[in-house]
Amino acid sequence: MNPWKGVKGLSRDLWVIYTATLINRSGTMVLPFLALYLTTRLHEDAATAGLILTFYGIGALVTAPLMGRLSDKAGSLTVMKLSLFLSGCILLLYPMIQGFGLLLAATFLWAIINEAFRPAVMSLISYIAPPEKRKTAFAMNRLVINLGMSIGPVAAGFLAQISFSIIFYVDAVTAILAAAFLTFYPVHHKINKEELEKEGEKLQSHKGIVLKDIRFIFFLLALTPATMVIFQHIGVLPLYLVKDLHFQTSTFGMLIAVNTVLIIFVEVPLNTAMTNWSEKKSLALGALLIGIGFGSTAFVSNVIPLIITIIIWTFGEMIMFPSSSAFAAEISPPNRRGEYMGYFQMSFSLAFTLSPWLGTLVYDNYGGKAVWLASFAVSAVSAAALLLMPAKRVHVKIPESLAD
Protein backbone atom coordinates (compact mmCIF):
# COMPACT_ATOMS: atom_id res chain seq x y z
CA MET A 1 0.00 0.00 0.00
CA ASN A 2 1.16 3.50 -0.82
CA PRO A 3 1.74 5.34 2.49
CA TRP A 4 1.37 8.67 0.69
CA LYS A 5 -2.03 7.83 -0.84
CA GLY A 6 -3.78 10.41 1.37
CA VAL A 7 -1.86 13.24 -0.29
CA LYS A 8 -3.55 12.50 -3.64
CA GLY A 9 -6.89 13.55 -2.22
CA LEU A 10 -5.70 17.03 -1.25
CA SER A 11 -7.22 19.76 -3.39
CA ARG A 12 -5.45 22.07 -5.83
CA ASP A 13 -6.12 25.01 -3.49
CA LEU A 14 -4.20 23.32 -0.69
CA TRP A 15 -1.23 22.77 -3.01
CA VAL A 16 -1.27 26.49 -3.87
CA ILE A 17 -1.07 27.27 -0.14
CA TYR A 18 1.72 24.73 0.38
CA THR A 19 3.74 26.14 -2.53
CA ALA A 20 3.45 29.71 -1.21
CA THR A 21 4.44 28.50 2.26
CA LEU A 22 7.46 26.66 0.85
CA ILE A 23 8.60 29.74 -1.08
CA ASN A 24 8.31 31.87 2.05
CA ARG A 25 9.89 29.36 4.43
CA SER A 26 12.79 28.65 2.08
CA GLY A 27 13.82 32.24 2.63
CA THR A 28 13.51 32.18 6.42
CA MET A 29 16.89 33.59 7.33
CA VAL A 30 16.57 36.68 9.50
CA LEU A 31 14.93 35.32 12.65
CA PRO A 32 17.41 32.46 13.27
CA PHE A 33 20.33 34.88 12.76
CA LEU A 34 18.86 38.03 14.32
CA ALA A 35 20.72 37.72 17.64
CA LEU A 36 23.97 37.16 15.78
CA TYR A 37 23.29 40.15 13.52
CA LEU A 38 22.56 42.43 16.48
CA THR A 39 25.67 41.41 18.42
CA THR A 40 28.26 41.12 15.64
CA ARG A 41 27.10 43.66 13.05
CA LEU A 42 25.47 46.29 15.26
CA HIS A 43 27.64 45.53 18.30
CA GLU A 44 24.75 45.32 20.73
CA ASP A 45 25.38 43.31 23.89
CA ALA A 46 23.78 39.89 24.40
CA ALA A 47 21.20 41.20 26.88
CA THR A 48 20.02 43.86 24.41
CA ALA A 49 19.78 41.30 21.61
CA GLY A 50 17.82 39.00 23.91
CA LEU A 51 15.41 41.81 24.81
CA ILE A 52 14.81 42.62 21.14
CA LEU A 53 14.07 38.94 20.44
CA THR A 54 11.73 38.91 23.43
CA PHE A 55 9.80 41.76 21.86
CA TYR A 56 9.42 39.63 18.73
CA GLY A 57 7.93 36.91 20.94
CA ILE A 58 5.57 39.39 22.60
CA GLY A 59 4.48 40.66 19.19
CA ALA A 60 3.79 37.10 18.04
CA LEU A 61 1.88 36.41 21.23
CA VAL A 62 -0.48 39.38 21.08
CA THR A 63 -1.05 39.37 17.33
CA ALA A 64 -2.38 35.82 16.93
CA PRO A 65 -5.98 36.25 18.19
CA LEU A 66 -6.28 39.75 16.72
CA MET A 67 -5.15 38.67 13.27
CA GLY A 68 -7.20 35.51 13.51
CA ARG A 69 -10.25 37.66 14.06
CA LEU A 70 -9.24 39.89 11.16
CA SER A 71 -9.09 36.76 9.01
CA ASP A 72 -12.75 36.11 9.83
CA LYS A 73 -13.69 39.66 8.85
CA ALA A 74 -11.44 40.40 5.85
CA GLY A 75 -10.73 36.87 4.66
CA SER A 76 -7.82 34.54 5.45
CA LEU A 77 -6.28 34.82 1.98
CA THR A 78 -6.22 38.63 2.15
CA VAL A 79 -4.47 38.55 5.53
CA MET A 80 -1.94 36.00 4.22
CA LYS A 81 -1.01 38.10 1.19
CA LEU A 82 -0.77 41.33 3.18
CA SER A 83 1.31 39.63 5.84
CA LEU A 84 3.80 38.30 3.30
CA PHE A 85 4.06 41.53 1.30
CA LEU A 86 4.34 43.94 4.26
CA SER A 87 6.74 41.64 6.09
CA GLY A 88 8.97 41.66 3.00
CA CYS A 89 8.86 45.47 2.91
CA ILE A 90 9.90 45.73 6.56
CA LEU A 91 12.82 43.34 6.00
CA LEU A 92 14.04 45.43 3.08
CA LEU A 93 14.25 48.44 5.40
CA TYR A 94 15.51 46.64 8.52
CA PRO A 95 19.26 46.74 7.69
CA MET A 96 19.03 50.54 7.55
CA ILE A 97 17.66 50.78 11.11
CA GLN A 98 19.97 51.54 14.00
CA GLY A 99 19.45 52.53 17.61
CA PHE A 100 17.89 50.45 20.38
CA GLY A 101 14.48 52.13 20.36
CA LEU A 102 14.02 51.92 16.59
CA LEU A 103 15.21 48.31 16.50
CA LEU A 104 12.77 47.40 19.26
CA ALA A 105 9.87 49.09 17.46
CA ALA A 106 10.78 47.65 14.05
CA THR A 107 11.12 44.13 15.46
CA PHE A 108 7.80 44.36 17.30
CA LEU A 109 6.04 45.65 14.17
CA TRP A 110 7.66 42.93 12.04
CA ALA A 111 6.49 40.26 14.51
CA ILE A 112 2.89 41.50 14.36
CA ILE A 113 2.84 41.50 10.55
CA ASN A 114 4.93 38.38 9.99
CA GLU A 115 3.08 36.23 12.52
CA ALA A 116 -0.32 37.24 11.10
CA PHE A 117 0.29 34.61 8.43
CA ARG A 118 0.04 31.64 10.83
CA PRO A 119 -3.57 31.84 12.11
CA ALA A 120 -4.74 32.92 8.67
CA VAL A 121 -3.19 29.94 6.86
CA MET A 122 -4.43 27.51 9.52
CA SER A 123 -7.92 28.95 9.23
CA LEU A 124 -7.89 28.67 5.43
CA ILE A 125 -6.65 25.07 5.52
CA SER A 126 -9.47 24.29 7.97
CA TYR A 127 -12.04 25.68 5.54
CA ILE A 128 -10.64 23.95 2.44
CA ALA A 129 -9.80 20.49 3.82
CA PRO A 130 -12.80 18.29 4.65
CA PRO A 131 -12.81 16.94 8.24
CA GLU A 132 -11.52 13.51 7.21
CA LYS A 133 -8.54 15.10 5.44
CA ARG A 134 -7.55 17.71 8.02
CA LYS A 135 -4.88 15.65 9.78
CA THR A 136 -3.19 14.94 6.48
CA ALA A 137 -3.62 18.55 5.32
CA PHE A 138 -2.03 19.99 8.48
CA ALA A 139 0.72 17.35 8.45
CA MET A 140 1.52 18.32 4.85
CA ASN A 141 1.68 21.96 5.87
CA ARG A 142 4.21 21.09 8.59
CA LEU A 143 6.20 19.10 6.04
CA VAL A 144 6.61 22.06 3.67
CA ILE A 145 7.50 24.31 6.62
CA ASN A 146 10.24 21.90 7.68
CA LEU A 147 11.45 21.56 4.10
CA GLY A 148 11.75 25.32 3.82
CA MET A 149 13.40 25.62 7.22
CA SER A 150 15.98 23.04 6.17
CA ILE A 151 16.95 25.34 3.26
CA GLY A 152 16.72 28.92 4.55
CA PRO A 153 18.89 28.87 7.70
CA VAL A 154 21.54 26.71 6.03
CA ALA A 155 21.82 29.11 3.09
CA ALA A 156 21.80 32.06 5.48
CA GLY A 157 24.88 30.70 7.23
CA PHE A 158 26.87 31.02 4.01
CA LEU A 159 25.33 34.31 2.89
CA ALA A 160 25.99 35.96 6.27
CA GLN A 161 29.70 35.34 5.75
CA ILE A 162 29.49 37.60 2.69
CA SER A 163 27.14 40.21 4.15
CA PHE A 164 24.42 40.16 6.81
CA SER A 165 22.36 42.54 4.70
CA ILE A 166 21.96 39.86 2.03
CA ILE A 167 19.94 37.58 4.32
CA PHE A 168 17.46 40.41 4.94
CA TYR A 169 17.04 41.00 1.21
CA VAL A 170 16.66 37.30 0.37
CA ASP A 171 14.13 36.81 3.19
CA ALA A 172 12.23 39.88 1.97
CA VAL A 173 12.21 38.80 -1.67
CA THR A 174 10.94 35.28 -0.89
CA ALA A 175 8.13 36.71 1.25
CA ILE A 176 7.08 39.09 -1.56
CA LEU A 177 7.37 36.28 -4.13
CA ALA A 178 5.10 34.11 -1.98
CA ALA A 179 2.53 36.94 -1.88
CA ALA A 180 2.81 37.30 -5.66
CA PHE A 181 2.33 33.56 -6.12
CA LEU A 182 -0.91 33.67 -4.11
CA THR A 183 -2.03 36.60 -6.26
CA PHE A 184 -1.30 35.03 -9.66
CA TYR A 185 -2.28 31.48 -8.64
CA PRO A 186 -5.30 32.31 -6.51
CA VAL A 187 -7.14 29.96 -4.20
CA HIS A 188 -10.51 29.28 -5.83
CA HIS A 189 -12.26 27.93 -2.76
CA LYS A 190 -15.18 30.22 -1.94
CA ILE A 191 -16.33 30.56 1.66
CA ASN A 192 -20.08 31.02 2.00
CA LYS A 193 -20.34 33.46 4.89
CA GLU A 194 -24.11 32.98 5.20
CA GLU A 195 -23.67 29.24 5.70
CA LEU A 196 -20.93 29.89 8.24
CA GLU A 197 -23.21 32.24 10.17
CA LYS A 198 -26.00 29.63 10.20
CA GLU A 199 -23.60 26.96 11.39
CA GLY A 200 -22.25 29.32 14.03
CA GLU A 201 -25.77 29.97 15.27
CA LYS A 202 -26.38 26.22 15.58
CA LEU A 203 -23.29 25.98 17.78
CA GLN A 204 -24.45 29.02 19.80
CA SER A 205 -20.92 30.43 19.67
CA HIS A 206 -21.27 33.26 17.22
CA LYS A 207 -21.55 35.84 19.99
CA GLY A 208 -19.41 36.60 22.99
CA ILE A 209 -15.74 35.83 23.51
CA VAL A 210 -13.66 32.70 23.21
CA LEU A 211 -13.33 32.54 27.01
CA LYS A 212 -16.97 31.39 27.09
CA ASP A 213 -16.05 28.16 25.34
CA ILE A 214 -14.84 26.02 28.23
CA ARG A 215 -14.04 23.00 26.06
CA PHE A 216 -11.73 25.05 23.85
CA ILE A 217 -9.99 26.70 26.83
CA PHE A 218 -9.65 23.29 28.51
CA PHE A 219 -8.09 21.96 25.30
CA LEU A 220 -5.53 24.79 25.16
CA LEU A 221 -4.63 24.42 28.84
CA ALA A 222 -4.28 20.65 28.48
CA LEU A 223 -2.16 20.94 25.33
CA THR A 224 0.24 23.68 26.48
CA PRO A 225 2.31 21.65 29.00
CA ALA A 226 3.24 19.01 26.40
CA THR A 227 3.96 21.77 23.89
CA MET A 228 6.32 23.39 26.38
CA VAL A 229 8.13 20.07 26.77
CA ILE A 230 8.67 19.69 23.02
CA PHE A 231 10.32 23.12 22.89
CA GLN A 232 13.02 21.88 25.27
CA HIS A 233 14.81 20.63 22.14
CA ILE A 234 15.84 24.27 21.61
CA GLY A 235 16.07 25.07 25.33
CA VAL A 236 17.78 22.62 27.67
CA LEU A 237 18.57 19.75 25.29
CA PRO A 238 21.55 21.39 23.52
CA LEU A 239 22.96 22.53 26.88
CA TYR A 240 22.53 19.08 28.41
CA LEU A 241 24.15 17.25 25.50
CA VAL A 242 27.14 19.60 25.26
CA LYS A 243 27.74 20.52 28.91
CA ASP A 244 26.62 17.39 30.75
CA LEU A 245 27.22 14.60 28.24
CA HIS A 246 30.21 16.37 26.61
CA PHE A 247 29.11 15.96 22.98
CA GLN A 248 30.34 18.31 20.28
CA THR A 249 27.90 20.91 18.94
CA SER A 250 28.15 19.18 15.56
CA THR A 251 26.90 15.96 17.19
CA PHE A 252 23.90 17.83 18.60
CA GLY A 253 23.15 19.15 15.10
CA MET A 254 23.22 15.65 13.64
CA LEU A 255 21.03 14.28 16.44
CA ILE A 256 18.40 16.99 15.90
CA ALA A 257 18.52 16.24 12.16
CA VAL A 258 16.88 12.91 13.08
CA ASN A 259 13.81 14.90 14.11
CA THR A 260 13.68 16.87 10.84
CA VAL A 261 14.20 13.82 8.61
CA LEU A 262 11.44 11.87 10.36
CA ILE A 263 9.01 14.78 10.03
CA ILE A 264 9.73 15.14 6.31
CA PHE A 265 9.40 11.45 5.45
CA VAL A 266 7.03 10.01 8.06
CA GLU A 267 4.59 12.64 9.36
CA VAL A 268 2.22 12.78 6.39
CA PRO A 269 1.79 9.01 5.88
CA LEU A 270 1.58 8.52 9.66
CA ASN A 271 -1.32 10.97 9.98
CA THR A 272 -2.99 9.55 6.89
CA ALA A 273 -2.89 6.13 8.54
CA MET A 274 -4.38 7.64 11.71
CA THR A 275 -7.25 9.39 9.93
CA ASN A 276 -9.91 7.33 11.69
CA TRP A 277 -8.41 7.72 15.16
CA SER A 278 -10.34 9.97 17.54
CA GLU A 279 -8.61 13.28 18.09
CA LYS A 280 -8.61 12.87 21.87
CA LYS A 281 -6.78 9.54 21.69
CA SER A 282 -4.31 10.88 19.13
CA LEU A 283 -3.58 13.94 21.24
CA ALA A 284 -3.13 11.92 24.42
CA LEU A 285 -0.85 9.40 22.70
CA GLY A 286 1.24 12.21 21.21
CA ALA A 287 1.63 13.94 24.58
CA LEU A 288 2.56 10.66 26.29
CA LEU A 289 5.21 9.81 23.67
CA ILE A 290 6.69 13.29 24.06
CA GLY A 291 6.95 12.69 27.81
CA ILE A 292 8.47 9.23 27.41
CA GLY A 293 10.99 10.47 24.87
CA PHE A 294 12.21 13.46 26.84
CA GLY A 295 11.90 11.64 30.18
CA SER A 296 14.10 8.80 28.92
CA THR A 297 16.87 11.30 28.19
CA ALA A 298 17.64 11.28 31.93
CA PHE A 299 18.80 7.65 31.70
CA VAL A 300 20.90 7.61 28.51
CA SER A 301 24.34 8.94 27.66
CA ASN A 302 25.36 7.30 24.37
CA VAL A 303 24.47 8.28 20.81
CA ILE A 304 22.28 5.28 19.86
CA PRO A 305 20.04 5.47 22.97
CA LEU A 306 19.78 9.22 22.46
CA ILE A 307 18.63 8.70 18.89
CA ILE A 308 15.95 6.33 20.18
CA THR A 309 14.69 8.97 22.64
CA ILE A 310 14.57 11.54 19.84
CA ILE A 311 12.62 9.11 17.64
CA ILE A 312 10.10 8.57 20.45
CA TRP A 313 9.43 12.24 21.12
CA THR A 314 9.44 13.05 17.41
CA PHE A 315 6.64 10.50 16.88
CA GLY A 316 4.79 12.23 19.70
CA GLU A 317 5.30 15.58 17.99
CA MET A 318 4.21 14.21 14.59
CA ILE A 319 1.01 12.82 16.12
CA MET A 320 0.13 15.65 18.51
CA PHE A 321 0.68 18.74 16.36
CA PRO A 322 -1.46 17.84 13.29
CA SER A 323 -4.11 16.30 15.58
CA SER A 324 -4.24 19.46 17.69
CA SER A 325 -4.70 21.63 14.59
CA ALA A 326 -7.44 19.33 13.29
CA PHE A 327 -9.17 19.27 16.69
CA ALA A 328 -9.01 23.06 17.01
CA ALA A 329 -10.65 23.34 13.59
CA GLU A 330 -13.26 20.74 14.49
CA ILE A 331 -14.45 22.39 17.71
CA SER A 332 -14.28 26.01 16.52
CA PRO A 333 -17.43 27.70 15.19
CA PRO A 334 -17.02 27.97 11.38
CA ASN A 335 -17.85 31.68 11.37
CA ARG A 336 -15.12 32.37 13.95
CA ARG A 337 -12.49 29.84 12.96
CA GLY A 338 -9.82 32.45 12.32
CA GLU A 339 -10.23 33.87 15.82
CA TYR A 340 -10.12 30.42 17.40
CA MET A 341 -7.04 29.50 15.38
CA GLY A 342 -5.49 32.75 16.55
CA TYR A 343 -5.91 31.74 20.18
CA PHE A 344 -4.67 28.25 19.32
CA GLN A 345 -1.55 29.78 17.75
CA MET A 346 -1.17 32.07 20.77
CA SER A 347 -0.90 29.03 23.04
CA PHE A 348 2.06 27.82 20.94
CA SER A 349 3.68 31.25 21.09
CA LEU A 350 3.22 31.29 24.86
CA ALA A 351 4.79 27.84 25.17
CA PHE A 352 7.66 28.90 22.90
CA THR A 353 8.25 32.02 25.00
CA LEU A 354 8.09 30.36 28.44
CA SER A 355 9.56 26.92 27.77
CA PRO A 356 13.28 27.74 27.29
CA TRP A 357 13.22 30.11 30.27
CA LEU A 358 11.53 27.65 32.65
CA GLY A 359 13.63 24.74 31.39
CA THR A 360 16.93 26.54 31.87
CA LEU A 361 15.78 27.78 35.29
CA VAL A 362 15.22 24.19 36.45
CA TYR A 363 18.45 23.12 34.75
CA ASP A 364 20.53 25.77 36.51
CA ASN A 365 19.08 24.97 39.94
CA TYR A 366 18.47 21.21 39.86
CA GLY A 367 20.35 19.81 36.86
CA GLY A 368 19.43 18.21 33.54
CA LYS A 369 17.96 14.98 34.92
CA ALA A 370 15.41 16.99 36.90
CA VAL A 371 14.32 18.71 33.66
CA TRP A 372 13.75 15.37 31.90
CA LEU A 373 11.90 13.76 34.80
CA ALA A 374 9.74 16.86 35.13
CA SER A 375 9.14 16.73 31.37
CA PHE A 376 7.73 13.22 31.68
CA ALA A 377 5.49 14.19 34.59
CA VAL A 378 4.20 17.33 32.85
CA SER A 379 3.51 15.47 29.59
CA ALA A 380 1.72 12.66 31.46
CA VAL A 381 -0.56 15.24 33.09
CA SER A 382 -1.14 16.76 29.66
CA ALA A 383 -2.02 13.36 28.17
CA ALA A 384 -4.49 12.61 30.99
CA ALA A 385 -6.12 16.02 30.68
CA LEU A 386 -6.51 15.65 26.90
CA LEU A 387 -8.33 12.34 27.44
CA LEU A 388 -10.65 14.03 29.94
CA MET A 389 -11.69 16.89 27.65
CA PRO A 390 -15.44 17.61 27.74
CA ALA A 391 -17.29 15.74 25.01
CA LYS A 392 -19.63 18.64 24.29
CA ARG A 393 -19.27 22.40 23.99
CA VAL A 394 -19.64 24.08 27.40
CA HIS A 395 -20.16 27.78 28.03
CA VAL A 396 -19.98 30.03 31.07
CA LYS A 397 -21.36 33.45 31.77
CA ILE A 398 -18.86 36.25 31.20
CA PRO A 399 -19.42 39.80 32.50
CA GLU A 400 -20.79 42.10 29.83
CA SER A 401 -17.77 44.38 30.22
CA LEU A 402 -15.60 41.61 28.75
CA ALA A 403 -17.91 40.76 25.85
CA ASP A 404 -17.15 41.66 22.24
Could you describe the 3D structure shown?
- This protein has 404 residues and is mainly alpha-helical.
- It folds into 2 domains: 1-191, MFS general substrate transporter like domains (Growth Hormone, Chain: A, Up-down Bundle); 202-404, Growth Hormone, Chain: A, CATH 1.20.1250.
- It has 17 helices and no strands.
- The radius of gyration is 21 Å and the shape is globular.
- Residues 396-404 have low confidence and may be disordered.
CATH architecture of the largest domain: Up-down Bundle
**Shape estimate:** globular
Give the N-to-C terminal Cα separation.
50 Å
Share in β-strands:
under 5%
Low-pLDDT parts are 396-404
Estimated radius of gyration: 21 Å
Mean pLDDT: 86
**Largest sheet composition:** none
What share of residues is helical? over 70%
For the record, what CATH class of the largest domain applies?
A: Mainly Alpha
Please state the structural category: mainly alpha
Query: What is the CATH homologous superfamily assignment of the largest domain?
Result: MFS general substrate transporter like domains
* Integer tally of domains: 2
CATH topology of the largest domain: Growth Hormone, Chain: A
Order of helices and strands: HHHHHHHHHHHHHHHHH
Total helical elements: 17
Strand tally is 0
